[in-house]
UniProtKB/TrEMBL annotation, chain A:
Region (Disordered): 135-160
GO biological process: cytochrome complex assembly
Domain of life: Bacteria
Signal peptide start-end: 1-21
InterPro entries, sorted: C-type_cytochrome_biogenesis, CcmH/CycL/Ccl2/NrfF_N, CcmH/CycL/NrfF/Ccl2_sf
Keyword Iron in record: yes
Protein name: Cytochrome c-type biogenesis protein
Protein family: Belongs to the CcmH/CycL/Ccl2/NrfF family.
Species per Swiss-Prot/TrEMBL record: Halopseudomonas aestusnigri
Residue ranges with Basic and acidic residues bias: 145-160
Pfam families for this protein: CcmH
Transmembrane segments: 105-126
GO molecular function: metal ion binding
Key words, A-Z: Cytochrome c-type biogenesis, Heme, Iron, Membrane, Metal-binding, Signal, Transmembrane, Transmembrane helix
UniProtKB/TrEMBL annotation, chain B:
InterPro entries: Periplasmic_diS_OxRdtase_DsbE, Redoxin, Thioredoxin-like_sf, Thioredoxin_CS, Thioredoxin_domain, Thioredoxin_ResA/DsbE_sf
Classification via PANTHER family: THIOL:DISULFIDE INTERCHANGE PROTEIN DSBE
Domain Thioredoxin positions: 39-182
A Pfam cross-reference name: Redoxin
Keywords annotated in UniProt: Cytochrome c-type biogenesis, Disulfide bond, Redox-active center
Name of this protein: Cytochrome c biogenesis protein CcmG, thiol:disulfide interchange protein DsbE
Membrane topology term: Single-pass membrane protein
GO cellular component entries: outer membrane-bounded periplasmic space; plasma membrane
Gene3D superfamilies for the chain: Glutaredoxin
Compartment list: Cell inner membrane
Record-linked NCBIfam families: dsbE (TIGR00385)
GO molecular function (one): disulfide oxidoreductase activity
Length: 160, 182
């Protein structure tokens, strides 16, 4: 393959990345509002196509929800208000970032708990192994052996 | 004690596997896709003020929905609704109260459908732009809501109501609400 073809293929691949996102024609009143729109859209899960957010999905329901997010934004609602609005209708499921409450505490703190357990296990193992090493070196020599070792060491230091 | 510690990972794995197996089984038993629990359960039916599908009939609001009743979300573009329709006709003939919400559809198509396939609905609400559907959290027709005598949503069913669904699930729920209203 020629070098030019490589670049062409790379270019096409890069372009393909943008095709996944759904295209709408919304007239945003400001850049900031556009950013908020996409931020909210990527945080809301499409209820029909359950592994996509509404910004990426081509499902009709996702288009409806985008339209609704846009309408609410134009209406001057805050991000939280818009997400709550959707949760009131479609349930907690629509949040890709679940709210922190009693039901979701395990979800939020579960990984941390696992990490702590892991760290604890490692610390305990390392300590135990260290102790085992220390004990074996202490207990490895009888008094005679220790005496002989000391003599040898002394002799060596005298030789120096 | 050391020995017991060794089997902890195995136990954890078994618990997890059991959990996954359970959700796998419950999913297979129901309809083809994962059903979302509705946050509207035990809440009053959303307020609305919409025209009737049929020209000349007065506008319809939530106050016109007299429970216990089924509120069925349907559309002419919805293939599954066509499968469901004969069952609704039969239920209506048996005296079950059904209200229809024609969702994101045109009145002309809806009227033709009701003429061709019979009209099982006591009222035909025209939700052409899907606003009521959005307030209800509808994400795919057909969906059916069970409301009680006070207009409170007591159950949501997603998918086609067929004989089996009615006999094993919805029918009993409906009759319970009728009993409750007495």
């Amino acid at each position: 393959m020629s070098r030019r073809l490589h670049w062409l293929v790379l270019g096409l691949l890069l372009m393909a990345g943008g095709v996944g996102a759904a295209v709408d024609t919304f007239e945003f009143s400001s850049e900031q509002e556009r950013d908020r729109f996409y931020a909210i859209g990527s945080e809301l899960r499409c209820p029909k196509c359950q592994n996509q957010n509404i910004a990426d999905s081509d499902a009709p329901i996702a288009a409806d929800l985008r339209q609704e997010v846009f309408r609410l934004l134009e209406d001057g609602r805050s991000d939280d208000e818009i997400v709550d609005y959707m949760v009131a209708r479609y349930g907690e499921f629509v949040r890709y970032k679940p709210a922190l409450n009693r039901d979701t505490a395990v979800l939020w703190f579960g990984p941390l708990a696992f990490l702590l357990v892991g760290v604890l296990a490692v610390v305990l193992l390392v300590r135990r192994r260290q102790r085992a090493v220390n004990e074996s070196s202490d207990a490895g020599l009888s008094p005679q052996e220790q005496k002989r070792l000391d003599e040898l060491l002394n002799k060596k230091s005298q030789d120096d | 004690m050391r020995r017991l510690l060794l089997i902890v990972p195995l136990l954890l794995f078994l618990v997890l596997a059991g959990f996954f197996l359970q959700s796998l089984m419950t999913k297979e038993e129901g309809v083809t896709e994962l059903e979302l629990p509705s946050p509207l359960l035990n809440k009053p039916f959303p307020t609305f003020d919409l025209p009737s599908v049929i020209d000349g009939e007065p506008r319809i609001t939530q106050a016109d929905l007299k429970g216990p009743a089924l509120v069925n979300i349907w559309a002419t573009w919805c293939v599954a609704c066509r499968v469901e329709h004969p069952v609704l006709n039969r239920l209506a003939a048996e005296g079950v109260v059904i209200y229809g919400v024609n969702y994101k559809d045109t009145n002309a198509d809806a009227i033709k459908w009701l003429k061709d396939f019979h009209n099982p609905y006591q009222l035909n609400i025209s939700d052409a732009d899907g606003r009521l559907g959005l307030d209800l959290g509808v994400y795919g027709a057909p969906e059916t809501y069970l409301i009680d005598a006070n207009g409170v949503i007591r159950h949501k069913f997603i998918g086609v109501i067929d004989e089996r669904v009615w006999d094993t699930d919805l029918g009993a729920r409906y009759r319970a609400l009728v009993e409750e209203a007495k």
